[in-house]
């Protein structure tokens, strides 16, 4: 029996054999910050390769590497100047091939970022498109005449706004037209309505699949098409001063257009044709009713449209339970869920909810039904690092003054040891280290059975050993906030999870029917093996069974 997409919603089938991406765990690496092999203070591919044993020992199944393509780094790799190369700062294609080979030898899959919405202004395609309006690659990008008369602002083609603030249009003097950029002006949008551009981008997928890549995370997919009639976006009636400038309008004509789904199906077909068990993951910050459409009408879209709602939902039991229920009920039949606690664009979980609750969140992430994605360093409890103004690198901060610290605080170097520069590099790193790196690091935590790293290793080992926790059915438990509880079942195997989302002890809160259950794992040392009992300690999460 070949693997199918998922078991029946209510109960796991004994005959069902999951794909690796259904019972596996993905680990995101931000390459500038993971490990530096050559002492220039920047992480690189050889550095990642030197640390693959950490991922294997942690118990993940795949590493997703954020962009390492040639780039001016205006948006730190998301402005690509060559989709089929490696930026010299990160190494060479030979380094990449060696990384893939070693990862595969350790049983690890390799996923890459695919950035279809835009490239760099220095990409040869855009340099050619700027030559004149008749150039064959002109239509590979989105150009428009300005409105007649008036000043610069009144001549803009419409009111579309960049994600980084300000108009999404930049004037190109030499050819007398505006070009569209949904992000920075250094990131011109590609025109996916042009069949030649479309073929060229699908060939990028084929190039990396030919080098052994196991799948892709597709960046900003909901931006891929824009309204062909160039209509103004409607004003946002809920906009208030202090909100991000882009929220002044509702992005009705610039995101989540119907044409996107055909393009996703084409990407999926390329992966399906390249061999079994390739995975396509989509980045789209959307409400559930729109997000789940990206699975495709016949599950021929993304295998996993990223679910970011754990990042945005209030860390309260009632809100979390309602969000999980809404997600589960929104999933199309046969679709597989997934969960994300953090990434390179969002504040770290330990900063958002505190170090103690970050342990509870680890239990939630690793025991919910669906594929978890870990962000590098979260397995240590790393937190956001304050960035002084003179240390800021992130263009989001530089281009949108007053919107806070930007994204540098969650992108600081991985903390490997208490050695100088945290074992990340022999030189001063490109971003500052956390002040507590000598206590919060891999070397120290791997020797401490009560550490966050040991907790994650135990969670992932338990998940790997028990199909109920990896692929089993999900049933919520009727417990009162601040407790959150659920059961995971697969055949005759049943595990329960209870999470205290508060810093207060919950006396007598455990349902009487569960109190004799045996604790398999707890965020608090010394509890495993004993009876669950009637109480949960402050900031405690437990996994239990009969």
Descriptive terms for the model:
13% strand, single chain, 5-stranded antiparallel beta sheet, Immunoglobulin-like, 16 strands, 8-stranded parallel beta sheet, 546 residues, Oligo-1,6-glucosidase, domain 2, alpha/beta, TIM Barrel
Describe the SSE topology.
Blueprint: H1 20-23, E1 26-29, H2 45-50, H3 52-58, E2 62-65, H4 93-105, E3 109-114, H5 124-129, E4 143-144, E5 169-172, E6 177-180, H6 195-209, E7 215-218, H7 260-274, E8 279-282, H8 288-291, E9 304-305, H9 309-312, H10 317-330, E10 338-340, H11 349-353, H12 355-367, E11 371-375, H13 395-399, H14 442-445, H15 452-465, H16 467-471, E12 473-476, E13 483-490, E14 493-500, E15 518-522, E16 541-545
Parallel strand pairs: 1-2, 1-11, 2-3, 3-7, 7-8, 8-9, 10-11
Antiparallel strand pairs: 4-6, 5-6, 12-13, 13-14, 14-16, 15-16
Helix pairs in contact: 6-7, 12-15
Walk me through the structure.
- By secondary structure, the protein is α/β, with parallel strands linked by helices.
- The chain is built from 16 helices and 16 strands.
- The protein has helices at residues 20-23, 45-50, 52-58, 93-105, 124-129, 195-209, 260-274, 288-291, 309-312, 317-330, 349-353, 355-367, 395-399, 442-445, 452-465, 467-471, and strands at 26-29, 62-65, 109-114, 143-144, 169-172, 177-180, 215-218, 279-282, 304-305, 338-340, 371-375, 473-476, 483-490, 493-500, 518-522, 541-545.
- It has an 8-stranded parallel beta sheet. Strands 12-13-14-16-15 form a 5-stranded antiparallel beta sheet.
- Helix 6 (195-209) packs parallel to helix 7 and helix 12 runs parallel beside helix 15 (452-465).
- The longest helix has 15 residues, at 195-209.
């Amino acid at each position: 029996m070949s693997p199918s997409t998922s078991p029946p919603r209510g109960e796991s089938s004994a005959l069902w054999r999951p794909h690796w991406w259904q019972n596996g765990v993905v680990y995101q690496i931000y390459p500038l910050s993971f490990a530096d092999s050559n002492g220039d203070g920047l992480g690189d591919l050889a550095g990642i390769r030197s640390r693959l044993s950490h991922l294997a020992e942690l118990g993940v199944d795949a590493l997703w590497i954020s962009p390492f393509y040639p780039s001016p780094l205006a948006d730190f790799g998301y402005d690509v100047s060559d989709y089929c190369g490696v930026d010299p700062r990160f190494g060479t294609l030979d380094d990449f091939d060696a990384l893939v080979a070693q990862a595969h030898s350790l049983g690890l899959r390799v996923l890459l970022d695919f950035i279809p919405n835009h490239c760099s202004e220095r990409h040869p395609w855009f340099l050619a498109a700027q030559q004149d309006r008749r150039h064959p690659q002109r239509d590979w990008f989105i150009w428009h005449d300005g409105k007649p008369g008036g000043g610069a602002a009144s001549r803009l083609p419409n009111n579309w706004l960049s994600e980084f603030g300000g108009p999404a249009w930049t004037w190109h003097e030499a050819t007398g037209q505006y070009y569209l950029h949904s992000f920075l002006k250094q990131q011109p949008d590609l025109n996916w309505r042009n069949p030649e551009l479309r073929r060229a981008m699908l060939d990028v997928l084929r190039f990396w699949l030919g080098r052994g890549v196991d799948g892709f995370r597709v960046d900003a997919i909901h931006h891929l098409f824009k309204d062909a009639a160039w209509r103004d976006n409607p004003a946002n009636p809920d906009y208030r001063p202090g909100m991000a400038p882009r929220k002044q309008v509702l992005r009705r004509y610039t995101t989540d257009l119907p044409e996107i789904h055909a393009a996703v199906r084409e990407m999926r077909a390329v992966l399906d044709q390249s061999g079994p068990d390739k995975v396509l993951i989509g980045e789209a910050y959307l409400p559930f009713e729109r997000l789940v459409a990206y699975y495709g009408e016949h599950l021929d879209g993304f295998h996993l449209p990223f679910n970011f709602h754990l990042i945005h939902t209030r860390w309260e039991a009632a809100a979390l339970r309602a969000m999980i229920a809404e997600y589960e009920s929104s999933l199309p039949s046969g679709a597989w869920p997934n969960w994300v606690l953090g990434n390179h664009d969002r504040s770290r979980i330990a900063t958002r909810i505190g170090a103690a609750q970050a342990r509870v969140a680890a239990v939630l992430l690793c025991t919910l039904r669906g594929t978890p994605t870990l962000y590098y360093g979260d397995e240590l409890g790393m937190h956001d690092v304050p960035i002084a103004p003179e240390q800021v690198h992130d263009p989001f901060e530089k281009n949108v003054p007053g919107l806070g610290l930007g994204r540098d605080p969650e992108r600081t170097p991985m903390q490997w040891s208490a050695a100088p520069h945290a074992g990340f590099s022999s030189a001063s790193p490109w971003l500052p280290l956390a002040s507590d790196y000598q206590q919060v690091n891999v070397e120290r935590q791997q020797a401490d059975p009560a550490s966050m790293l040991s907790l994650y290793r135990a969670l992932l080992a338990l998940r790997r050993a028990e199909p109920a926790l990896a692929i089993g059915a999900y049933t919520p438990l009727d417990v009162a906030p601040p407790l959150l509880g659920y059961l995971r079942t697969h055949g005759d195997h049943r595990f329960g999870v209870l999470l205290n989302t508060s810093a207060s002890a919950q006396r007598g809160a455990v349902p009487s029917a569960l109190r004799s259950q045996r604790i398999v794992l707890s965020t608090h040392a010394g509890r495993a093996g004993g009876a669950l009992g009637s109480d949960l300690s402050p900031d405690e999460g437990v996994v239990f069974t009969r």
